[in-house]
Amino acid sequence: MEKEQIARINELAHIAKERELTAEEFEERAALRKQYIEEFRANTRAVLDSVVIQTPDGKRHKLPKKEKK
After folding, report:
1. pLDDT tens sequence across 9-22
2. Which end of the chain is flanked by fewer CB atoms within 10 Å, N or C?
């Protein structure tokens, strides 16, 4: 996500504190927030996928994925 988009999210947040957002502003904010969260999750997954655990005996293995309940 680009800095301009993050700045726009913040700008809309400040506007929302001062007055009620218009329908267009509300939809824009929702779309930007959704995009931000998707990119955050993707980056977090990439970091976790690259984590390697090294045991005391020197063996290395990837971080296991948590099972869904």
Report:
1. 999 999 999 999 99
2. C
